[in-house]
Amino acid sequence: MFNRFMLIVVFVPLAVILIALAVANRELVSFTLDPFNPGNPKLTLTLPLFIFLFLALAVGMVVGSLATWVKQGRYRKLARQRGAEAENLRQAVGRAPAAPQGPAPGSTQGSAQGSSLPKPTT
């Protein structure tokens, strides 16, 4: 349901806008990589403007995604460390000797301060 909503509300108007942008910007433009000799044919691309616009959009999305991925690296590292710690604790609980279920005879405190750890839930 949510996927269909996203498709209709976001992606269909976005597609219409991009198609209109491509149709409106069909003129050929030159993009040169040599600022000192702009007429150099080896370093000049002549393509429709909308291709350059879409390439700029794609490059911006890739650079932004990479920047976000790098910035969130410490959180992924922390999640891996805590996951390993949780797995070690699960294994330690699995190896721990079974404690008696009821209070020990002669004990007045009950099982409130028992030494057994709760079983992990999966």
Structure description:
The chain is built from 3 helices and 2 strands, in the order H-E-E-H-H. The mean pLDDT is 84. Strands 1-2 form a two-stranded antiparallel ribbon. It is mainly alpha-helical and 122 residues long. The longest helix is centred in the first third of the chain and has 23 residues, at 2-24. It starts with a helix and ends in a 27-residue tail after the last helix.
Q: Could you report the average pLDDT, rounded to the nearest whole number?
A: 84
Order of adjacent strands in the largest pleated sheet = 1-2
Supply the helix-strand structural class.
mainly alpha
Extended strand count: 2
* Number of DSSP helical runs: 3
- Please state the oligomeric state of the protein chains shown: single chain
Order of helices and strands: HEEHH
Query: Outline, from the CA principal axes?
Result: elongated
What summary fits the major beta sheet? Answer: 2 strands, antiparallel
Beta-strand share of residues: 5-15%
Low-confidence stretches: none
Radius of gyration over alpha carbons?
31 Å
- Cα(first) to Cα(last) distance is 29 Å
Helix residue percentage: 55-70%
Highlighted features:
single chain, 122 residues, mainly alpha, two-stranded antiparallel sheet, 3 helices, 8% strand, elongated
